[in-house]
Amino acid sequence: NISDFLTYDRTIEKFDMPNLKNFGKDVLYNNRMLKKLSLPSVETIGENFLYNNIKIEEFSAPKLTDISYNFLYFATALKKINIENVESIKDNFLYSNYFLEEFYAPKLKKLGSSFLCSNSRLININIENVKEIGDDFLSYNKVLKNIELPNVEIIGTNFLINNNAIKKIILPKVKIIQIFFLRNNTDLEIIELPNVEVILCGFLENNKKIKNINLPNVLEISSDFMAKNTILDTFVAPKLQTIQNDFLFNNQSLKQLYLPSLVSIGLNFLYYNNSLTNIDLPNIVEIGRDCLYWNNTITNIELSNLIKIKNGFMRLNENSLKRFIAPKLSIIPDKTFEFNKSLEYIELSKNEVEIKKFVLNNHPNREEIIEQLYDNHKWCANKAIYKKI
């Protein structure tokens, strides 16, 4: 077991130790001349092995089982590697390698962060038994078209970000999707996440091709879910309970939305959506600011369990919304229904109702609505429903 061997030696062109089984840290650190290396007996290698070797093209260690940090870091020229028995790879493996086209590690179970980050040529990969993947997995690879991960259970942040070639991905065992999952992948068309329970922010941001998503077990979705996807027309999540900010921001195609268990929505929910004509949220309790902002296609809203909404709900819905029923809602905050001119029927709590500024601002019958009082707090056909506070 040797460490610090030939560290900073930039002249060695040949290395032959066929019987050595273990390397410590910093071996051949910063070597710039070695082009081929075969280590037939090596089983373990310490951190920073061949760190910053920019000329090595082939590496073989068929008995190697564990790879430490910064292995072949910045080995930009590597084209061929044989580590078929490796089971664990730590962070920064082949970071900034530009030429490797195939990677085969069928026994690999755990993969650290920045695996082949910035590699731009990998087209084939076999890591079918991997169970855990760290951050920045294959980030900025733009040519890999197919990947199968049937056993992966944990994935890190920035998974396959900026990959524009993959069109289908299936992760049958993953339960948590970390931030920026497949961010800037514009061409993904099919995604299957049957056991995912939590999706963190930036999920599929800027995707342009997915038309429908079914998330049968998801419970929570964080901010920026599929932001700027303009063609998704169907979203199904029967167990989803919480949605944070900017859900489907700027989507213009959604027509079917199935969220029967949803309880809470953050701000900017379906902001700028102009295709959804019906919304059914039977268990929703709280809605954040500027939700359904600028929607001009929904005609009827009935939210039987809604208790709280924040400013700007259905703001700039000018001509479509005609009925709004929320029998448990008692406070209408600022700018709710602002610029709406089409409401014909509203039903709120039978208790006292408080109306904030700019509610129904620009509605032709706003003054009558606010001033007139009916005991049941209903307003129909231009007659008031609200109790003035």
What is the overall silhouette? elongated
Question: Low-confidence runs (pLDDT<50, min 5 residues)?
Answer: 378-389
N-end to C-end Cα span: 82 Å
The radius of gyration over CA amounts to: 29 Å
Biggest sheet, spatial arrangement of strands:
1-3-5-7-9-11-12
Output the structural class.
mainly beta
Largest sheet: 7 strands, parallel
Give the percentage of residues in beta strands: 15-25%
- Mean pLDDT level: 89
Number of separate helices:
1
Quaternary structure? single chain
Question: Number of DSSP strands?
Answer: 30
Q: Which percent range fits the helix content?
A: under 10%
Structure report:
With 389 residues, this protein is mainly β. It is elongated and about 90 Å long. The longest helix is centred in the last third of the chain and has 6 residues, at 366-371. It has a seven-stranded parallel β-sheet with strand order 1-3-5-7-9-11-12, with no helix packed on it. Strands 14-16-18-20-22-23-25 form a seven-stranded parallel β-sheet, with no helix packed on it. It has a four-stranded mixed β-sheet with strand order 24-26-28-30, with no helix packed on it. Helix content is 2%, strand content 19%. It starts with 21 loop residues before the first strand and ends in a 9-residue tail after the last strand.
Quick structural overview:
By secondary structure, this protein is mainly β. 2% of the residues lie in helices and 19% in strands.
How does the SSE layout of this entry go?
Blueprint: E1 22-23, E2 36-38, E3 44-45, E4 58-60, E5 66-67, E6 80-82, E7 88-89, E8 102-104, E9 110-111, E10 124-126, E11 132-133, E12 154-155, E13 168-170, E14 176-177, E15 190-192, E16 198-199, E17 212-214, E18 220-221, E19 234-236, E20 242-243, E21 256-258, E22 264-265, E23 286-287, E24 300-302, E25 308-309, E26 323-325, E27 331-332, E28 345-347, E29 354-355, H1 366-371, E30 378-380
Parallel strand pairs: 1-3, 2-4, 3-5, 4-6, 5-7, 7-9, 8-10, 9-11, 11-12, 13-15, 14-16, 16-18, 17-19, 18-20, 19-21, 20-22, 22-23, 23-25, 24-26, 26-28, 27-29
Antiparallel strand pairs: 28-30
